[in-house]
Design goal:
Layout: E1 8-13, E2 16-21, H1 32-47, E3 53-58, E4 62-64, H2 80-96, E5 102-106, E6 109-111, H3 113-119, E7 123-127, E8 131-133, H4 147-166, E9 170-171, H5 172-177, E10 183-185, H6 190-202, H7 206-219, H8 224-239, H9 242-252
Parallel strand pairs: 2-3, 3-5, 4-6, 5-7, 6-8, 7-10
Antiparallel strand pairs: 1-2, 8-9
């Protein structure tokens, strides 16, 4: 790959935009250049009114091997906390606040920051040969890229501790079985399964889907009464929007709805 070749590829298929990490020779590990390109691509997708679902995947044999340890900002003696705050923090925040659903299509190894980037998406669909590795402890680090927040919420404290401290490779089949990811499919079926899911999400009421993501995350830090009140506030806004009125009318008239809110 030449130094000028894009490290993130962008392709549209209807209302779905696919962003492909494009450093296959390095298992799509992160450099500062790829960080800049991916964040810019996510911002562009967020601003594009015709995009109603984003798919994130990797070129070649893997999804993302995490941080490229050959990158100067990750070299021994550099402040890794500064690297995280400059690049990984805004990246995860961007994924978690996208105005459309985000699907990770994991086509091979997802390790370290790559694993947790995938887990930050709304859905993770993985090929059967894929795997997830919390590789941090093996080089004397703690999970980052949101891993300490995501793992306990996805699989509970005991499994999160085991995954984070032992750093064992977790096959996609087991990841699906313990609820770490949404779905594991045969490798050959991964593109069609992701396309079908993305198409389904793109046809749904986008604003309600995004509000659901926000409500589920916020409720983890609330008691029941606070969560009920938060739901009421969200329903007040959604209930006055086009998609609710369209959905009710479509239901009453037994027709397919056309959702447009975003």
């Amino acid at each position: 790959m030449s130094s000028t070749e894009a490290t993130v590829l962008v392709a549209d298929d209807g209302a779905t935009r696919t962003l492909t990490l494009n450093r296959p020779a390095a298992m799509n590990s992160f450099t500062t250049a790829m960080h800049r390109e991916l964040l810019a691509a996510l911002d562009a997708a967020a601003a594009a009114p015709d995009v109603r679902c984003v798919v994130l995947t990797g070129a070649g044999r893997g999804f993302c091997a995490g941080q490229d340890l050959g990158d100067p900002q990750a070299a021994p003696g550099q402040d890794l906390g500064a690297l995280i705050e400059a690049h990984y923090l805004p990246l995860v925040q961007r994924v978690r606040t996208m105005p459309v659903p985000v699907v990770a299509a994991v086509n091979g190894v997802a390790a370290g920051a790559g694993a947790n980037l995938a887990l930050a998406c709304d859905f993770v669909v993985a090929g059967r040969s894929a795997s997830f590795i919390q590789a941090f402890a093996k080089i004397g680090l703690v999970p980052d890229t949101g891993g300490t927040w995501l793992l306990p919420r996805l699989v509970g404290h005991a499994r999160a501790t085991g995954l984070a401290m032992l750093g064992d490779k977790l096959p996609a089949t087991e990841a699906a079985a313990i609820g770490l990811i949404w779905q594991c499919v045969d490798d050959a079926e991964l593109p069609s399964a992701v396309a079908a899911l993305a198409g389904r999400l793109a046809a749904m009421p986008t604003r309600a889907l995004v509000a659901t993501r926000e409500a589920l995350a916020a409720a983890q830090g609330m008691d029941l009464t606070a969560a009920l009140k938060h739901e009421a506030r969200l329903q007040s806004g959604l209930g006055a929007a086009h998609d609710y009125l369209e959905g009710v009318d479509a239901f009453r008239h037994k027709r397919a709805p056309t959702f447009t809110d975003r």
